[in-house]
Every structure is written in structure tokens, then in C-alpha cells.
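Researcher: I'd like a structural prediction for the single chain below. Treat it as a standalone chain; there are no partners to consider.
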Amino acid sequence: MDTNKTRKKKIVLTHSEVITRSNSHIGLFEELSFYDKSVFFTDNLKADRLLYYQLAGNRGGHPEQIEFPPSTEIVVLSDKVVKLLEMSVRHYMLDYIEMKLNLNNSLIILIESDFHRIVKQRAERVNDSSSLNLISRIEESINS
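Model: Treating it as a single chain, here is the predicted structure.
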């Protein structure tokens, strides 16, 4: 038996792979559920991490604050990490994410700006004033 044919192809996160995975969730803000899911945010976010944690929590997610646990279901890559990847500079977290993807390909990857867009679309659609307030604070801190 040829073991090369039965092996799964190893997932390697390239810049285009990250963009493709994240873009696949844009416009699906109703279908993309954060409810009761573990959400991990990489470092180097554009705004205060606690504001992003609150946004994820408002959608029912459980933000992970310290480490990347095996139970993580959604990972939000900072725009800076993605920009570095575009220049072929790999952030150390990509190794953990790839390991998780290669064990179980169900991990959802979002880029920070896509996460922001998705939660903003939903908040506007359902008039979620609490999330809209957080989004305004994030946008103000990014633009200042």
C-alpha cells in the first residue's frame, strides 16, 4: 500500500491561504456563529485587545486571553501579522495555527479587519448599540 496516497496534504499558511480562508466568511455574519466558541486573538492588534474581547463576548464567544488552547475554534490574526506574512515574515503563532489545522481543519481563521467588518455588519443589522459603541471606540483608536 502506497502511504503517500493516503496521507493528508499538510496545510501551510501562506498569505493567499489566510486571505482566502478569512474572505470566505465575509458576508456570512449571520451564519458565522461565535456562540459558545473559543476565540483567540493574536498580538499586534490595531486597537485595544479588551475591546475585541468584548465584541467577541457580545456575540457569545469566549475570548482566550493568554494562550492558544487546543479548544480554540476561531482565531483572529492581526492585520499586522498578515502584512508580515505578505512579506514572507512568519509570526510564531502561525506554527500553532497550522498544527491545529493539520489535526482538525475546522478552525476558522479571520483577519482582524474582516472580524471587525463581520461584527459591524451584524451589529448594524440588528441595531446592537453596545457592539456599535465598541466598534466606534475601536475605529476612533485606529484613526487617532
